[in-house]
Design goal:
The chain is of the alpha+beta class. About 25% of the residues lie in helices and about 35% in strands. Strands 1, 2, 3, 4, 5, 6 and 7 form a seven-stranded antiparallel sheet that branches.
């Protein structure tokens, strides 16, 4: 068993501290470097794999409100009044429709923001489509984003 003199104990402590401090500094830098967040670029919402209406995309996880929706089709023309609800922010839903309606063949006529409600108007062949996106109360659960899609003959 070796006996360390007070001088020798201080030398061992200094050597240990000499290794410990750089190690802590390096680990601390690595940990805190991971905490700094760069602003994220906006991501486009994904579409449901099977939309309710073939040429009208719906954001993934948005559900149709059957009580508020209707669909009729006779002799080559249709009238659609669909309502969907989901948790995504209204701006993200607006951006979703700006992208996916174009890929479904709809031409954007105008894009408006009216009192917190996004209104997008489209046309395709002999039809016009209005998409209204707004936040609405959801009972005691806060708010949800509601999307109303109305397709009528021109």
């Amino acid at each position: 068993m070796t006996c360390l003199t007070p001088y020798r104990r201080r030398s061992v402590r200094r050597a240990a501290m000499g290794l410990l401090l750089p190690t802590v500094a390096i680990l601390g830098t690595a940990v805190f470097a991971g905490c700094s967040k760069e602003p994220e670029s906006p991501t486009l919402l994904q579409a449901r794999p099977q939309p309710y209406i073939p040429d009208v995309p719906v954001p993934h996880k948005f559900q149709r409100d059957e009580r508020k929706s209707s669909y009729t089709s006779t002799a080559g023309h249709r009238e659609v009044r669909d309502v969907y609800q989901g948790k995504e922010p209204s701006l993200a839903v607006r951006n979703f429709y700006l992208h996916y309606m174009a890929t479904a063949g709809w031409e954007l006529i105008d894009d408006q923001l009216q009192n917190g409600v996004y209104v997008l108007n489209y046309r395709k062949d002999m039809e016009k489509c209005e998409v209204r996106i707004e936040r609405i109360p959801n009972g005691s659960y806060g708010t949800v984003t509601q999307t109303r899609v109305v397709i009528l003959p021109q």
